[in-house]
Amino acid sequence: MENTLSIFPTMEVTRRTVIETGTTALLLSSLPRGALAAETEQAEPSDISIELRVNGHLHHLTLDPRTTLLDALREHLALTGSKKGCDHGQCGACTVLVEGRRINSCLTLAVMHDGQSITTIEGLAFGQDLHPMQAAFVEHDGFQCGYCTSGQICSGVGMLAERRQGMPSYVTADLTQPLAEMSDNEIRERMSGNICRCAAYPNIVAAIKQAMGEQT
């Protein structure tokens, strides 16, 4: 018996510890049933109603304000073309166009884009006709496993729009240079936020150059 008791740490029981323990137990027992759970539930954020115009269609959504734009598209609108790769804004697989500008949809909250126009890979085609960037990717085999392809294509479309608007990149030598003459190095720099783990980069550059020539 002595050996069994010796494995437990000794604790000095004083009048103070008895009073403190009893007071705590009394306070907890006096709370209404479920009070602690109710307080926790009230601390959760309330859902927010927003409107998103996605690929030309207006959607009314009620979302947890912490919902990312990517999750809103995939989980609430069933638009699964935008992929969740790293979920940290490092791979570009989730790239979509918001008001014509490319963004990583995993890094932004859906409520931040209330009332805005969003284009995903599903909305790029013109009816049965592929977007020039989509057609170029098919022609030049700009994909292998295909997981990053939707983000690559949306980023390519957004990148050409940025270049037409006169936005420079780190390696831009001359913004007055025609769009069709943009160098391979500049294309690679502007697309550096989109990772292809299959390493189809030469084909991606070739596809963008073809689409670039068709859109000038």
From TrEMBL:
Entries under Gene3D superfamilies matching the protein: 3.10.20.30, [2Fe-2S]-binding domain
- Pfam families (UniProt xref): Fer2 (PF00111), Fer2_2 (PF01799)
Q: Which UniProt keywords are listed?
A: 2Fe-2S, Iron, Iron-sulfur, Metal-binding, Oxidoreductase
The 2Fe-2S ferredoxin-type domain is annotated at 48-124
Q: Is Transferase among the key words of this record?
A: no
Q: Which PROSITE patterns match?
A: 2FE2S_FER_1, 2FE2S_FER_2
Q: Per its UniProt record, what InterPro entries does this chain match?
A: 2Fe-2S-bd, 2Fe-2S-bd_dom_sf, 2Fe-2S_ferredoxin-like_sf, 2Fe-2S_ferredoxin-type, 2Fe2S_fd_BS, Aldehyde_Oxdr_Iron-Sulfur, Beta-grasp_dom_sf
Recorded GO MF terms: 2 iron, 2 sulfur cluster binding; metal ion binding; oxidoreductase activity, acting on the aldehyde or oxo group of donors
Q: PANTHER family attached here? A: OXIDOREDUCTASE WITH IRON-SULFUR SUBUNIT, OXIDOREDUCTASE, IRON-SULPHUR BINDING SUBUNIT-RELATED-RELATED
Q: What is this protein called?
A: Aldehyde dehydrogenase iron-sulfur subunit
